[in-house]
Automatic annotation (TrEMBL):
Gene3D superfamilies: 1.10.10.200, 3.30.70.980. GO terms for biological process: regulation of DNA-templated transcription. Pfam families: TACO1_YebC_N (PF20772), Transcrip_reg (PF01709). HAMAP family: Transcrip_reg_TACO1 (MF_00693). InterPro entries: Integrase-like_N, TACO1_YebC-like_2nd/3rd_dom, TACO1_YebC_N, Transcrip_reg_TACO1-like, Transcrip_reg_TACO1-like_dom3, YebC-like. Keywords: Cytoplasm, DNA-binding, Transcription, Transcription regulation. It comes from Candidatus Coprosoma intestinipullorum. It comes from the Bacteria. This is Probable transcriptional regulatory protein IAB27_01455. Residues 5-72 form the TACO1/YebC-like N-terminal domain. Belongs to the TACO1 family.
């Protein structure tokens, strides 16, 4: 089973999280992206992608519109994206991404969860190198060979490409996500993307059992309850 499955599984897990937190995180992300790149969708492809993703996760448009209206009204809030690198039980590792307007609150809340699960916060760079930071785009309707030709013609370098059934999955530089989608849409304007994410994929995975697995799942649950935690990436085979 391909690496794209892990991205899908993480998305499914997030869909099952509390709706209030899901809506809050989208409101923050949409506000920050609109503030940085403007509120017009045609001029801000990152905002368009984020809103499309919110719709897929059934976030009410009222949440989306309020975040954009806040930018248009001149409200001045600043959210910072920060990663915390964690050593979990028995060789497991995690990258905990937070989107926060208060870094002190963020680190205190994450550290409290780690302490309760008896795991250790690592120094910056101590875990990150064990993961590939990539964008993942999957779709049907263009063959793998044609996809390679399209991206080659537009000068976009990719990390990898694979096919699962009739679905093509492209892995690339995170900064190239919108460029990859635009190049493919230019070839097929009706193309729909099953997946378009920026994520961290572990280079190697571990399997946990017994108490280690219970402790790891408890850690995931506790991190999910932290207001500022946006995404959790890990190397555990679940």
């Amino acid at each position: 089973m391909g690496r794209a499955y892990e991205v899908r599984k993480a998305s499914i897990q997030k869909n099952g999280a509390a709706k209030a937190k899901l809506y809050s995180m989208y409101a923050r992300e949409i506000y920050q992206v609109a503030k940085n790149g403007g509120t017009e969708l045609e001029g801000n492809p990152s905002l368009k992608r984020l809103i499309d993703k919110a719709k897929k996760e059934q976030v009410p448009m009222d949440i989306v519109n309020r975040a954009i209206d806040k930018v248009n009204s001149g409200a001045d809030e600043t959210y910072t994206s920060v990663n915390y690198e964690v050593f979990g039980p028995n060789g497991s590792t995690l990258i905990v991404n937070c989107l926060t307007d208060n870094l002190n609150r963020s680190i205190s809340s994450v550290r409290a969860a780690l302490n309760k699960c008896h795991v250790k916060l690592g120094a910056q760079g101590s875990v990150n190198y064990m993961y590939d930071h990539v964008c993942v785009v999957s779709f049907k309707g263009i063959s793998e060979e044609d996809t390679l030709d399209i991206l080659l013609e537009t000068g976009i370098d990719i990390n990898d490409i694979e096919t699962e059934g009739d679905e093509v999955i492209v892995y690339g530089n995170p900064n190239d996500l919108n460029s990859i989608k635009e190049a493919l849409l230019a070839k097929n304007p009706k193309l729909e993307f099953d997946l378009d994410e920026i994520t961290y994929l572990p280079k190697d995975k571990v399997t946990l059992e017994g108490e280690d697995l219970d402790n790891f799942n408890r850690l995931l649950d506790m991190l999910d309850e932290v207001e500022d935690v946006n995404h959790v990436y890990h190397n555990v085979e679940l």
